[in-house]
Predict the 3D structure of the following.
Amino acid sequence: MNILAINGSHRAGKGTAALLNAVLESAGHQGATCELIELSHLDIRFCSGCNACLGRNRCAMHDDMDLLYDKMMRADGIVLGSPVYFGTVSARMKNFMDRTRPLHMVDNALAGKVAGMVTCAGLPDCGCQGALAAMDHFFATHEMLVVHPRPLGPVTGDGVAATQLSRFNEAGDPEWRSVKDDENAFKCARRLGHDMFNLIARLS
Ligand SMILES: Cc1cc2nc3c(=O)[nH]c(=O)nc-3n(C[C@H](O)[C@H](O)[C@H](O)COP(=O)(O)O)c2cc1C
């Protein structure tokens, strides 16, 4: 079983990557073979809007997306991670999404694969839902099966979203923390890896 994580953060190895690694560690612990791809390490040009993919399942451009098309096709599960930028995904993640159009226009080449998403933000109520919804919609367009994790115990949220705000102090100033201190988010991320593994196992 192969699970591929794709990080749309411009900052490799930071908050979003930490969340994705928690998903992969959990799935890997159960036996999945996992890989994390940092989009910021790849050379991926903007979709040019040429529409060549209306009639063929490969992009007219050739760059590091070629590698990703193959990896996505081989994966049983794909988890996307993006920081929240102005209430939605980063431009790097959005361009990656656009460049997957060749896998969607002739037929839905990714249909039936299992999916999940995580996001990382500065503030708890400032756009996490928008970023998660953008990735959810992306997966729906590709006809993929999206896992919405629900850890045991009290409900703490409705998606894997880690935030850096710790609290506002007595003076009203924000105090910041590492996203790694957002225990609920990491608990939810581990549950996502667990649930993705189990759904893929049940389907195979
Ligand atoms: C251009 C820009 C826009 C941002 N927009 C938001 C936002 O709308 N809401 C929010 O809570 N945080 C916002 N942030 C903060 C990032 O989401 C946050 O720093 C995130 O943890 C970065 O993830 P990373 O560690 O993977 O880079 C923004 C940051 C940048 C640089």
In short: The two ends are 9 Å apart (CA to CA). The pocket of flavin mononucleotide is lined by residues 9, 11, 14-16, 83-87, 120-123, 126-127, 164, 179 (CB under 6 Å). The longest helix spans residues 183-203.
